[in-house]
Every structure is written in C-alpha cells, then in structure tokens.
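Progress report, Aim 2. The chain analyzed during this reporting quarter is listed below.
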Amino acid sequence: SVVRNALFCLETAANEKENHMYTKALMAYAFALAGKEEKRKALLRSLEKEAVKKDGSVHWQRPGKEAEVDLPYYRYRAPSAEVEMTAYVLLAHLTTKPSPSQEELSFASLIAKWLSGQQNPNGGFSSTQ
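Predicted structure tokens for the chain:
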C-alpha cells in the first residue's frame, strides 16, 4: 500500500507541466523500476527534447547554466547534479522489460560516452551518487 501510494504521488507529479529536468530523470528511473513503461517512455521523450547533443554524446544540464570555459589544456567537468541527472536518464533507458531496444541501446551509448568523459583521473566522478 505504501508503494502504491508513492507511485500514485509520482504519477500525479509526472502530469504537471513544469517539472525540473532532474525531477523528470528521477521519475523516469522510478517508473522504469516499477514497470510503468508508458510513464517511463513519456518522460524519456520529454527529456530527449531538452538534451544537449554535442561531440557525438548526449547529456542534460541545468537551464540558465553558464557557458563552458574553452581554454587550452583545460578540461571542463560538469557539476555533480548534471552528472547525476544524466546517469539517471541512462539508468531509465537501460531498465526496461523486456530488454532495451536497439534504438535505446544506441542512445544509451551516447549518454555513456558523455558520462565516461566526466571521470576524474582516478576514475571517480564529481558526485558520489
């Protein structure tokens, strides 16, 4: 009953017009885990419209974010919230039954490419999530 109530709360929130991208990413993953395919797909479609597609990779960033600094010998690393948000979208793409489609796997590989570029020299990330 607690899980059912939580899913009802999430479904109500998912129907709101103004959801932050981070919230959409979390909800997409939660619906994927709950087996709510239509909700998962609807949120992923919405998120794809807001994706940043650059250099053969895909990620999500906060609206109104400052432009990246383009300096020689400097490698920009995204803030932890953007790494987390993008990772949740990746999980939502890969957590589906039956297994993800070839199209989803191809898109997921573009997300994974961006995430792997965010690793620090020790293999970690700016986020501990």
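The first helix runs from residue 2 to 14. The mean pLDDT is 87. These observations will guide the mutagenesis work planned for the next reporting period.
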